Every structure is written in structure tokens, then in C-alpha cells.
Amino acid sequence: MPSAPAPSDPPEPAEDSQRRRGLDHLLTIPKGIAQVDFQPNHWTGLIFLAALFVGGWQFGVFGLLGTVVATLTAYLLGVSWRDRVSLGLEGFCGTLIGVSLVLYLDARWMTALLVVGGAIAGSVLTSALRVVLTPYDLPTFTAPFCVITSVMVIGGPSFGRVWAEHAGSAPPSATAPGTAMSWAYFWKGTFNGVGQVFFQDKWYVGLIFLAGLVVAGWATGLVALASSLIGLLTGWALGAQAADLGAGLYGYNSVLTGLALFGTFVAVTSVSAVYAVIGTVAAAGVTAGIGTLFEVVGGHTLTWPFVLVTWVFLAAVPMLNKIERAG
Length: 327
Fold this sequence. Notes:
CATH class of the largest domain: Mainly Alpha
């Protein structure tokens, strides 16, 4: 005798379904912030957002503005919801555009307008770069943010209403030169390397960002901390200015490179761990060269070292039999 069919779950009420969809849409914003460090975790994103506000209200407000505008632009232009927007992959460049522009141009209405325009342009550029890079299986990373912010900051002095009240952005070594390393520079620089991914130079803000990464996974937090330390030690070994090391300026590109090359885009093995370490060292080394290059034209290092180094290391993977892409 055939068994009776199993009872099916009752359909979800339309009001509950609508509420759930609304929550899913809302959570794309903290996910976008978290994706700066490759984490599709809304709790991590909320902790990151809190860290930005601890660093200064302007960083939280303008970072949030950039994330919302970039995410909304991608959604309205028809970027895939399931594969991109819902995971926060269309928001993180907007986050960095917002935080960087308020840092370099100060908190003004003109800056807010530039963040909106930059986030929209960054969203379009993200799609354009995906078309170019997808055949090579390379992500866009933060390249759209780097391009948009570089163009705006380099072009800023040409526009009086943009540059009239721009904030100073000289490195710490401009007022505290020297290569003598202290314990304070060492431990603060390790945490600052994590925070400088979001342009934050207070060690306790970096610690909050690190806590957000640990929420996503303890191994993720450990990789970020180790990568920041490797970047700092590389800069120290090469004779970088101690104040810049203490501010985390040689650590943040290494943090992003380490996270990308160990677990996010490259499968975790003992060989890939060594590969990731080499990448983090390279990112710290390239930081000085990129910084010097952009200094000539009034630009900033941003995350260009991470983008360029990680593109090279990922592009090489198909030729390396002992290294495999993740997933």
C-alpha cells in the first residue's frame, strides 16, 4: 500500500515574505562594507561600520553614503542580484570612495556630491572591468575605487570649490622623520595595518576591525593580523620611516593581499601559505614605489599595491602546479 505523501510546509504569508525580502535588501549594505576585506558577512560589516564611526563620524557617514549609492546604482542598472548585489560585491568600492574622499577633501556638501558621483562612476567602472578581466578569471578587487579616487584627488586642485578646504594628508614621517623603531610603533602599527584598509590610523579602531574579521572566522582574523605584521616587518627591514610603519602605512596592502591569496581566491595549503607570504612582502615593497610615483602628480598610494600584486599572483596560478584557485 503506498505511503501517504508527507505534508508540505504551509506557504509563507505574503507579509512575512515581503519583510524578509526587505531585510535581505537592507543587509546588502553592511555586506558591502564587509566585502572590503572579502567577507560576505553582515555582522562583520556592522562591526566595520561601528569602527568607522569610532574613527570619526565623517568616516561612518560618508562610507555609508558611498556604499548605499554604489549598491543602489548596480541594482537599478540590472547587475545580478543573486551573484553580485546580494553578496555586497557592488558596494565595497563605494565604501572606500566615501571614506577616502572625506579624508582628503574634508566633510562638506561638495564632498558628499563627489562621493555620490564617484560611487555611481565606480559602479559602472566595476562592470566594465569585469568584462575585461573575466576572461582571465581575475576579480576587479578595489581597482574601481583606486581609479575614481586617484582621478578626483589628482584633478582636485584644478577646481576651487573642491580643493579650497581640502584636508592635509601628509604622512606621519613628514613631522616625525627617522627609521628608529620603537615598541609603540611596532604594536600600534600592527593593528593600524588592519585599520588602514579603511584609512584609519588609530590602533584601537584597527582592533575593532580585527574583531569584525574574527567574527567572520578566527582564521580570517589571524591571516589579517599576520599579514599586517609581515608588511610592517618588510618595511622595517628595508628601512622605511618608523612613523609611517607605526601608522600602518606598510601593512594594509599586505593585509588585503594576504586575505586574497590565502583562502579567498587561492586554496589553503602549506605551499599557498608560502605563496601568500611572498605576496604580502611584495605588496609592502611595492607600496613605497607606488607612493613615490603618485606623490609627483598629487595622488595617493591607496590600495594600488594590493591590486597590482594580487592580479599578478593570481594570473600566475594556472602555470603553478602546486597552487590552486579556491572553489
